[in-house]
C-alpha cells in the first residue's frame, strides 16, 4: 500500500523499492527504473515507470523518454511532447488533448479511448500501435505514420490527415467525415470495413482498391480515384 502511494506520487525511488522488496512481504516489487522519481521536465527518462492517473497538463516534456511507461488514465492535456519516445507505452484512457507531440514516437503503444483531440502530431510515428476508439478529432496528423496498426473505431473528424500513411492498418468503423488534407494520404491495403468516408474527396488518395471501397461507407458526395467503382450499397444503412 505504501509502495503504491509513493508510486502514484512519482517519488518511488530505487532505495524505496529495496526497502519494500523484503522476503515475506505481500507487496514484493521488482527494482524501479532509474529516474522514476525524477521531476517532470524536458528530457526526463521515465522508461518502464508506473505513472498512472497523474495530472501533468501544460508541462514541458520535450524529448522525454516514456518507453514502456504506464501512463494510463493520466491527464497530459496541453503538454509538450515534441520528439518524445512512447514506444510500447500504456496510454489507455490517457488524455493528450491540445498537446504537442511533433515527431514523437508512439510505435507499438497500447491504447484504448485515448484522447488526442486538437493535438499536434505532425510527423509522429504511431506505426504498429494496438488501439481502439482513439479520438483524433481536429488533430493535426500531417505527415504522420499510422501504418500496420489497429485503429478500429477511431475518430478522425476534422483532422488534418495530409500525407498520413495508413498502409496495412485496420481502420474498421473509423470515422473520417470532415477530415481534410492537402497532400493525399496513402491507404495501401488498409482495412476499411464500414469506415465512414462520406463527403470526402478520395480521388487522389494513394493505394485504394475496389475491394477496400466495397467494404467502406460513402455517399454521393464521396469522390473516388479513377478506376474505382462506386458500390451499389452506398449509402450504408447498417453502420453500427
In short:
By secondary structure, this protein is low in regular secondary structure. The chain has helices at residues 2-8, 14-20, 210-215; strands spanning 110-112, 130-132, 150-152.
Structural commentary:
It is a single chain. The protein is mostly loops and 240 residues long. The chain has a domain at 1-32. Helices cover 8% and strands 4% of the residues. Strands 1-2-3 form a three-stranded parallel β-sheet, with no helix packed on it. The longest helix is centred in the N-terminal third of the chain and has 7 residues, at 2-8. It is elongated and about 60 Å long.
Q: Which residues sit in consecutive blocks of at least 5 with pLDDT less than 50?
A: 1-33
Distance between the termini: 43 Å
The rounded Rg comes to: 20 Å
Order of helices and strands: HHEEEH
Query: How much is the average pLDDT?
Result: 89
Note the beta-strand portion: under 5%
Number of distinct beta strands: 3
- Category by helix and strand content: little secondary structure
Strand order of the largest sheet: 1-2-3
Task: Please bin the fraction of helical residues.
Answer: under 10%
Please report the number of helical segments: 3
Using the alpha-carbon principal axes, give the shape: elongated
Amino acid at each position: 500500500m505504501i509502495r503504491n502511494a509513493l508510486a502514484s506520487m512519482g517519488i518511488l525511488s530505487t532505495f524505496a523499492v529495496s526497502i519494500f522488496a523484503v522476503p515475506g512481504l505481500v507487496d514484493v516489487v521488482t527494482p524501479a527504473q532509474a529516474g522514476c522519481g525524477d521531476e517532470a521536465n524536458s528530457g526526463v527518462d521515465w522508461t518502464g515507470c508506473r505513472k498512472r492517473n497523474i495530472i501533468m497538463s501544460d508541462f514541458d516534456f520535450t524529448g522525454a523518454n516514456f518507453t514502456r511507461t504506464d501512463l494510463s488514465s493520466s491527464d497530459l492535456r496541453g503538454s509538450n511532447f515534441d520528439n518524445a519516445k512512447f514506444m510500447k507505452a500504456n496510454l489507455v484512457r490517457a488524455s493528450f488533448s491540445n498537446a504537442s507531440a511533433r515527431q514523437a514516437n508512439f510505435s507499438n503503444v497500447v491504447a484504448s479511448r485515448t484522447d488526442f483531440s486538437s493535438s499536434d502530431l505532425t510527423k509522429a510515428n504511431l506505426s504498429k500501435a494496438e488501439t481502439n476508439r482513439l479520438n483524433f478529432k481536429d488533430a493535426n496528423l500531417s505527415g504522420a505514420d499510422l501504418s500496420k496498426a489497429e485503429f478500429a473505431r477511431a475518430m478522425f473528424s476534422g483532422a488534418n490527415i495530409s500525407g498520413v500513411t495508413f498502409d496495412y492498418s485496420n481502420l474498421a468503423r473509423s470515422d473520417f467525415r470532415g477530415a481534410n488534407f492537402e497532400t493525399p494520404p496513402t491507404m495501401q491495403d488498409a482495412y476499411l470495413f464500414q469506415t465512414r468516408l462520406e463527403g470526402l474527396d478520395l480521388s487522389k488518395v494513394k493505394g485504394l482498391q475496389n475491394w477496400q471501397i466495397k467494404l467502406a461507407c460513402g455517399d454521393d458526395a464521396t469522390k473516388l480515384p479513377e478506376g474505382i467503382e462506386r458500390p451499389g450499397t452506398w449509402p450504408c444503412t447498417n453502420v453500427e
